[in-house]
Amino acid sequence: MEWALIDLLLKRLHRPESAQTLPLGPGHDSAILRPRAGHDLVVCHDVLNAGVHFPEHTAPFDIGWKALAVNLSDLAASGASPRWMTLGLSLPAAEPRWLERFADGMRALLHTLPADTRPNLIGGDTTKGPLSIAVQLLGEVPQGQGLSRAGARPGDSIWLTGPPGDAAAALHGLQHGLPLAEPLLAALNRPRPPLLAGLQLRAHASACIDLSDGLLADLGHILQASGCGATLHLPALPASPLLAAFCQRFGLDRHKLQLTGGDDYQLCFTLPPGAESGLNDLLARCHRVGLIEAEPGLRLRNDNGQVETPDLDRPGYQHFT
Fold first, then answer.
1. Residue 108 shares a structural domain with residue 197
2. Is residue 22 within 8 Å of 33, Cβ to Cβ?
3. What pLDDT does residue 313 have?
4. Cα-flanking dihedrals φ and ψ of residue 302, to 5°?
5. Statement to judge: residues 218 and 169 lie in one domain
6. 133 and 244 belong to one structural domain
7. pLDDT at 320
8. Section 198-224 average pLDDT
9. Is the same domain home to 276 and 171?
10. Is residue 135 within 8 Å of residue 240, measured between CB atoms?
11. 130 and 167 together in one domain
12. Which residues constitute the domain of residue 292?
């Protein structure tokens, strides 16, 4: 049965590749990869567990979509183009129909991407146990052009590729039995990481991170790695109409959801002075939300122009707390 499940996945997610790039593919103990000349290999790996990263009743299609999306988001934050994928699955039972829908979710997300950025499934493992999905993506970036968290400098502007908070609102709605608009639920179950934005940023951004644990937490990682501080301008935080309406209807603090909710899978990036001129088309779709500063720490400027210091004891999602 295990080999039948593996074959099911390969039929949906593997495509033949030239021996020049994939000298040895699925069906062996290991795959052999050959990155293109002049490129660095970029690797990311995420594990998603039922009841932690997605509610227990989540549809298998949505689980497959999200398991791939969170890894694509990591590659986007590195400015890397996806090439290959491995998949590890722990399943309570061998259910081919569940696995078909799971693989269909992954495949549906792949087909939203340009053909040359769709990672190819080249191996993995299946085992019996609690539902858990481990995806590893391998990508490429021109040598020396990979983005990291560590390059922000005082005077750099802080940007977001899209509005945060929708996924946090959807999760809050599910946890409290509130009615949810389908697009708001899709923000949680079927995020669309801005992969192409990451490719455009690699020659321009000084630092970049994807928003998985919350804006305060993830921007804090940039500040820690870069050895600087920042001020975020709360009035500049973009909010989708769906989020604004949801928060108004149920009396929720929009900024709290946006700052600490997580699961957004947008990019937070910093740009040195003068770098904006080469990114006009991209920045027209992004949002400038703050400034990197020499003074350590993270500050929030509110609607009245007053500066607040956020509670950073739990700025976003943390495992083991």
1. no
2. yes
3. 55
4. -90, -175
5. yes
6. no
7. 37
8. 96
9. yes
10. no
11. no
12. 157-303
Structural domain count of the chain: 2
Among the three residues 142, 176, 192, which one is the final residue of a domain in this structure?
A: 142
137 shares a domain with 204 = no
List Cβ neighbours of 16 (8 Å cut-off, separation of 6 or more).
none
Q: Averaged over 187-194, what is the pLDDT? A: 95
* Residue 231 tokens, joined: 């001020």
Nearest Cα neighbor of 316 from 224, 227, 219 is 219
The CA distance from 101 to 74, in Å, is 24
Band of pLDDT at residue 16, cut at 50, 70 and 90: confident
Quote the pLDDT of residue 316: 52
87: confidence class by pLDDT, cuts 50, 70, 90: very high
Q: Report yes or no on 317 lying in a domain.
A: no
Q: Which CATH number does the domain housing residue 24 bear?
A: 3.30.1330.10
Tokens 């994939």 label which residue?
A: 22
| Contact (CB, 8 A) for 298 and 223 | yes
Burial of 245 (0-12, 13-18, 19+ CB in 10 A): middle
What's the mean pLDDT in 139-164?
97
The b-or-e profile of 61-81 (16+ CB within 10 A means b, else e) is bbbbbbbbbbbbbbbbbbbbb
* Cβ–Cβ < 8 Å for 257, 172: yes
Tell me the β-bridge partners of 214: none
Other beta carbons less than 10 A from residue 190's beta carbon: 17
Q: What is the CATH number of the domain that holds 189?
A: 3.90.650.10
Tokens found for residue 166: 């929708």
Residues 135 and 164 in one domain: no
Helix (H), strand (E) at residue 259:
helix 254-260
- Per DSSP, what are the bridge partners of residue 229? 293
Q: What is the mean pLDDT of residues 121-150?
A: 94
By the 10 Å C-beta count (0-12 exposed, 13-18 middle, 19+ buried), 84 is classed as: buried
d(CA 102, CA 248): 35
Last-in-domain residue among 142, 167, 196: 142
